[in-house]
Amino acid sequence: MTEVARISHLTHRFGETVATDDISLNVPGGVMAGFIGPDGVGKSTLLSIISGTRKIQTTASIPSETETTLVEVLGGDMRDNAHRRQSQPRIAYMPQGLGKNLYPTLSVEENLNFFGNLFGQNAEERSQRILQLTKATGLDPFLSRPAGKLSGGMKQKLGLCCALIHDPDLLILDEPTTGVDPLSRQQFWQLISSIRKQRPQMSVLVATAYMEEAQQFDWLAAMDDGKVIATGSPQALLERTGCDTLESAFISLLPEEKRAEHHEVKVPPMTDCQGEPAIQASHLTRTFGDFTAVDDVSFEIQRGEIFGFLGSNGCGKTTTMKMLTGLLPFSSGEARLFGQLPEPNDLATRKRVGYMSQSFSLYAEISVRRNLELHARLYALDEQASTNRIDEVMDEFGLRHVAEQQPASLPLGIRQRLQLAVAVLHNPDILILDEPTSGVDPVARDQFWAHLIDLSRNKGVTIFISTHFMNEAERCDRVSLMHAGKVLAVGKPAELARQRGNDTLEEAFVDYLKEAAGIEDAKPDEYSSEQLDNPAQQSDSGIQKRGFNLRRWWAYAWREALEIQRDPVRLVFALLGPLLLMVTFGYGITFDVEDIRYAIIDHDQSRESRLLTEGLSGSRYFEQMATPASHEAAIEQMRTGQLTLLIEIPPQFGQHFIRGWEPELGITIDGAMPFKAETSSGYVRGLLLQELQQISAENSQPASLTYPVDVQNRFEYNQAFKSVYAIVPGVIMLMLALIPAMMTAVSIVREKETGSIANFYATPVSRLEFLLGKQAPYVAISFVSFITLLILAVTLFGVPVRGNILGLALGALLYVTATTGFGMVISTFTKTQVAAIFASVILSILPAVNFSGLLTPVSSLAGPGYLLGLMFPSSWFQQISIGSFTKGLHFNELWQNHLMLGVFVLLFTSFAWLGLKKQEV
Amino acid sequence: MNINNVSELGLKELFSLRSDPVLVLLIIYIFSVSVYAVAKGVNYDVDNAAIAVVDEDHSALSRNITAAFLPPQFKTPEAISAADIEQQLDNGKFLFIVSFPPNFEKDVLAGRQPQVQVLIDATAIAQAGNGANYIQEIIQREALSALSPGTQLDNMLPVKTRIRKLFNPNSSSVWFNSLMQVINSITILGVILTGAALIREREHGTVEHLLVMPVTPAEIMLAKIWANSLVILIASVLSLQLVVTWWLDVPVQGSILLYVIACILYLFSVTSLGIMLGIITNSMAQFALLLIPIVIMMYLLSGGTTPQESMPLFLQRVMMFSPSTHFVSLAQNILYRGAGFNSVWPELVILASIGAVFYSIALAKFRKAIVTMG
Is there a domain that residue B82 lies in? Predict the structure, then answer.
């Protein structure tokens, strides 16, 4: 037996936490190798390192290590980039979590096509493989169904298909069946074993929490606390420990002090409770549109009873639970807790209920202790009681050693324990638990059940629990089997099995499911690769080559485009938003100062002063307000912005004026907005002068003023001096800056947040292919947006393109490539979508609005603003936009700006490329 | 309504915020560097304008006029040749080009009113008009003093005008822009921080989980409002004191207390707006795309950039529904013009009412938007 992986002295740390502790291990090839052990012992870390998706920490960062770390997979060092690139097409990796590496809005077929493209398969090869894989998994009737609408079992099958599409030599599965119903689980393993019959050389590495599954594997590594505590075949492990089940064998392999924590779970019989049932549901129904999620479900749960809810994923368990908690209103029928309807505003009943949702729904960014404290306070436990209670649950659920850590950094199983601890924190009378033990290891599960039984039997707590573990279902007082919104059977577990004539509940359940789903007992189609016998048909040869691969680039570009297409609201916003803004700004941003609110206090009341007053009121720039009572009153009006300008005509103004004594007019201007003040003061002086000259002409006084020079102003480019000619080209610049950058940044960071970035780590796609693939659809959308803006500018605003339209279009293309590139740069240093949105708005709004030349010419900018302007593509495109529209310039006069935009494209792409890591840290 | 819940959940918000260093850095950036850069760099007045001179006269007068284009309005004029005029204007190097014809001085002295041509890049709409006036005034003044030394332009006018600019005597745009940028920062942060955080919690299912507990939607919303508002309020007051008053040396008059009250009401309405946007959109990408037009409109059309009165009446009415319009006006009245409570209270009431509308819409749709199908 050759080894598929040889590991020596592997240590991996996350901050203070040691995930794998000096592990040395040889994993045999060509077999099913299982990794078993509790949560957080380093199984996932180990598998991700073997798969090459996680970076191996260097010995330098761990100074205490003296011996060299070595991870050899498929006969080469995984630290060697060349080897990793060579072997990546031979490895398939399915990360933990239901459908985590799938794209929920893409159909089954589209998901598979995406992976096929990543491995360089042509259309013909892909369609053959997809046909064959989906036939074998029974997914073929659902090719066009979106992955997000598949049940958990089907998601995992699809995940497996995606992993197998390139015939890997090493298949790595991290808890593939966690959260999957027994029938799907059975089918899943059948599928794996038939594939292995076809391709015996393939090695399969699996981490699992199901010991009964592990029993079927060829080789096992039992892990604890970052160390491997035993290896060998299941048989050998059983013999070594002298146990009959793997579960007990594992427990006996644990160190002494941990073994002591484990106790056999015994369920004392339920004492009959009197009184009304704790939970009652009668004809409970819930529809979403034309889909019936829960269909006429009735049951009654007694106080202190443990009631189990079994069924495949998506069968309506969660919806039922949400209705019981009052989260969802019911469509018809009713449910009662302690005889009360679950009113959303009934806070008293809420305190009697503890709920745990299927996915982690606590705050991942604040510490475990803070999460517990927060919940204690929200349930209004008093300070002393809550301190004690938090201490209690931290011990009960083994959380003390992680109290100060953030749940984000904890393994799934420990997070589940935290959720449980929160659910029981306030000593509720009813516990509603939605798959609480998914992903939790056997020891912890048994501990947890010991708590549940204690709560039920000794404290009379009613427990409503859904689970996929049959040994847990058997511990329930009664179970209900659910499928497609309907209850198939309710009863005591043993009785249900007896009714169906099966030995175990699992068999009975699988029977029920098959009957309900109309599945014959026949096995699914055998997996066969006969169509692909001819190796010439396989395009593997092209994969290992270095350099840019168009097909992989296309895989990402096509997938991104599909996702956008599935969210038309987003597309509408992206295209309509800019048009709306162009309309508003085209009309709204104007530097023409009009309707200046002024008032005149006339202390003279002569003919001249009245003529002056009348003359002013005729101007379109001024709007006369009522005469204020006094100077002080006028100033008071200015304080609230009701008045901008005050003219005071002194007594005897008329007389002095006629005599040529140059009387003094007092003008007071609200200077708060400097631009407005300057313009107003210019206007008022000009206007006064004009009026006075007219008055003196009528009085046949000699014209007092002739200017020595005739100054001819020529307003270039924009003779009418209208704001739209400057603003409309500017809005195009502005819109093509912010929206493309933000869309691109969010789309990349989203992959980090949802976990689908794993596909980037695990497949042969290069950093540049990934980035440019993600970028391409956004460049296209932004360019379409440019065209619509251009049309609007020409038609609605009548702003013609006086220069070269091709030069403008080329500039726009370069510009949106640069701004989407800026989005890629942002995505390298932000981890959350919130931060990505924030960063793209904040970092681009200043250089695009303030320092681009939109409002202030770049030549007038000073200080840091000038630099910020030049360091961002907007100011360069503004030159192209306003040059082509208003100034009538052509490419040969603007090419330097195009060149600079090209430089930005290169720079931003390089930064993003350098900032993106091909492996997880 | 349980005040403890509101305060507990709000504290949680603060801890969440602290755990994202990128966010914290950006908040610091937007209240410091960005305020400083806009205050110092942006100017809608004629300030630091690039001007060139084509001097075909080479006389004492043309040199005097050229030397009279002085900072801060103008950069030092550059001499260019007549052949370069078009190109220099095209590439945006100069805003103004003044051409003195041959025999200019001689003609002035002979009283022949020679023509001087001023080419103006009218795409710089904010500066072109006022700049042309300044240039005209400078040329006439210098020509006049060459003609009859000692004469002032003002003395030739039939009246004297004594212009007094209140509240900002030097027409300093640093004054104006710095404060307006603080307000813009408050707007951006207020909407994004709360709205995006809510969407994130929706995506992660944490708000749904809260609704199972004895917590009401109003408590969840108020917690977000107070916690985010507090952070922004502190940051903005610090920015006002440290960046605006101390670093930029802008004398802020008026009552800081009244400003803080207005700011609190404003924060209530923008954070409510953020929550409302987070409720009516379904994903982070949608939220972000809806956000951009709204934020940019609030940024540019609230009266902090261009005068409100000049906008078309229809748009003025639309912008009356934006809290930013009222806050810009309030902040200007309080901090620049020294208005007191008695004159600004109606606008405070409007601000609070707009916030209340956003808040009510968000509250009414909260539960339905949060609970997902499952």
Answer: yes
Please tell me whether residues B144 and B191 are part of one structural domain. no
Q: What is the CATH number of the domain that holds B120?
A: 3.40.1710.10
- Which residues in chain A are closer than 8 Å to B285, comparing Cβ atoms? 567, 570, 743, 746-747, 750
Do both B324 and B291 map to the same domain? yes
Whether residue B343 lies within 8 A of chain A, CB to CB, comes out as: yes
Phi, psi values for residue B195, rounded to 5°: -65, -50
DSSP string computed for B208-261: HHHHHSS--HHHHHHHHHHHHHHHHHHHHHHIIIIIIIIIS-----S-HHHHHH
- How far apart (Å, rounded) are the C-alpha atoms in residues B85 and B80? 7
202-221 in B: which are within 8 Å (CB) of A?
A: 204-206, 208-216
Do B218 and B346 sit in the same domain of this protein?
A: yes
Residue-range definition of the domain harbouring residue B320: 3-42+172-373
- How far is B75 from chain A, CA to nearest CA, in Å? 8
pLDDT tens digit string along A469-515? 888 888 899 999 888 888 888 888 888 888 888 788 888 888 888 88
- Pick from B26, B147, B283: which is nearest to A839 by CB? B26
Do B181 and B327 lie in one domain? The reply is yes
Is B115 near chain A, with CB under 8 Å?
yes
Question: Which tokens sit at B22?
Answer: 């990128």
Residue from A837, A844, A876 whose CB has the most chain B CBs within 10 Å, to mutate: A837
Question: Could you tell me which of A185, A218, A169 has the C-alpha nearest to residue A35?
Answer: A218
Residue B120 included in any domain: yes
Which of A378, A665, A717 lies nearest to residue B122, judging by beta carbons? A717
| Three-state DSSP string of A177-242 | CCCCCHHHHHHHHHHHHHHHHHCCCCEEEEEECCHHHHCCCCEEEEEECCEEEEEECHHHHHHHHC
The answer for B 78-97 residues in CB contact with A (under 8 A) is 87, 89-95
Task: Assess whether B93 and B220 both reside in one domain.
Answer: no
The band of A545, judged by pLDDT with boundaries at 50, 70 and 90, is low
pLDDT tens per residue across span A744-780: 999 999 998 888 898 999 888 999 999 999 999 999 9
A863 at interface of B, judged by CB pairs closer than 8 A: yes
* Residue B177 falls inside a structural domain: yes
Same domain membership, residue B192 and residue B77: no
Contacts of A317 (CB under 8 A, 6+ apart): A309, A311, A434, A466, A482
Contact A640 B333 (CB under 8 A): yes
Residues B205 and B90 in one domain: no
- Strand A70-73 with A3-14, pairing: antiparallel
pLDDT grade for B374, boundaries at 50, 70 and 90: very low
**Residue where a domain stops, chosen among B97, B127, B156:** B156
This model's pTM is above 0.90? no
Total of domains in chain B: 2
Is B225 in the same domain as B347?
yes
Q: Angle, to 10 degrees, between the axis of helix B33-41 and the axis of helix B173-204?
A: 140
B69 within a domain of the structure (yes/no): yes
Among B156, B187, B210, identify where a domain stops. B156
> In this predicted complex, what is the ipTM?
0.86
